[in-house]
Design brief:
The complex is a heterodimer of chains A (142) and B (110). Helices cover 36% and strands 28% of the residues of chain A. Chain A has helices at 23-35, 39-60, 88-91, 101-104, 113-120, and strands at residues 7-14, 62-69, 73-80, 123-129, 133-141. The longest helix of chain A has 22 residues, at 39-60. By secondary structure, chain B is α/β, with parallel strands linked by helices. Chain B starts with a helix and ends with a helix. Classes of the chains: A alpha+beta (142), B alpha/beta (110). The structure holds adenosine-5'-triphosphate and magnesium ion.
């Protein structure tokens, strides 16, 4: 892929269906496999994208995902127009969650999603404004 | 050990068998999906009572060797169909998560 323009993919993430959430991440994983990327990099991208995708669905009513694959890294940009995050530092803490009971009964709400993203990415930037939405930019080096 | 050998030894109910010859390398037990996501490894068995479709997304993203639903956990509508289309091995057992893990541990040591 040297010197080639980055490969780019765009996904709309439906915010209404909790049960099938994660489809975009599964799709991206397939694409990265086909490209023949290193399996550890695929694993890290899968985990980070899944957690951000689920967060968009359960906390923000859905959003959009942009994935870009360049020779040295994979960049994920997840944008939503949900309620935003008032205190990002607090949200990043292990165990912190505002997930309601009906969501918890599906296995979410451990407050481990953002910590997982932090752990499995090389770069993470969270921009959020209350009442406007959230943009999470992450990258995994290849 | 393979998925087939575990299925036989634990007398598991088959909900979907995609690849019985798949090799199992380890075990992870848990019901909170982001813990599973952060800690389970490729080719692990996942033992859980969480039987909704989100469990299958995690299994597929992590390339788990199979999912065992413990304590006769009743799968949500569409669960088995999704496991079929994603080609994920899924079984069910009357045993508790603990009992299943004890037996898996014995098998891994043999
Ligand atoms: N896109 C988002 N929009 C609004 N709030 C968010 C968003 N993402 C995360 N949050 C807030 O940050 C908190 C922590 O997120 P995190 O992913 O770590 O945990 P969780 O989603 O609550 O549970 P888990 O990911 O373990 O299932 C959430 O409970 C929520 O309050
Ligand atoms: Mg989360």
């Amino acid at each position: 892929m040297d010197n080639a323009a980055p490969l780019e993919f765009h996904f709309n993430v439906d915010g209404k269906d909790f049960t099938s959430a994660g489809e975009a991440s599964v799709e991206v994983k397939k694409i990265l496999r086909r490209i023949g990327l290193d399996s550890e990099a695929i694993r890290r991208v899968s985990i980070a994208m899944y957690e951000a995708e689920i967060n968009m669905v359960i906390h923000a009513g859905g959003g959009e995902a942009d994935v870009s694959v360049s020779p040295d890294k994979i960049t994920l940009v997840m944008t939503d127009h949900g309620p935003g995050i008032a205190d990002i530092e607090l949200a990043m803490r292990e165990g912190y969650s505002t997930a309601p009971d009906n969501i918890r009964s599906l296995g979410f709400g451990a407050g481990m999603g953002l910590p997982n993203i932090k752990r499995y990415t090389d770069e993470l930037k969270i921009e959020s404004e209350v009442g406007k939405g959230t943009k999470i930019t992450m990258s995994v080096n290849i | 050990m393979t998925v087939n050998s575990v299925c036989e030894r634990l007398d598991l109910e088959v909900l979907n068998l995609a690849d019985g010859e798949r090799e199992i390398l380890g075990v992870y037990a848990g019901d909170l999906l982001s813990w599973v996501m952060g800690h389970a490894n490729e080719s692990d068995v996942l033992v859980t009572i969480m039987s909704n479709i989100n469990t299958l997304a995690v299994a597929s993203l992590l390339d788990l060797s199979c999912v065992i639903l413990a304590e006769s956990s009743e799968p949500d509508p569409g669960f088995v169909e999704t496991a079929q289309s994603k080609e994920i091995n899924v079984f069910r057992s009357k045993l508790t998560t603990y009992e299943i893990c004890v037996e898996l541990s014995r098998m891994l040591e043999e």
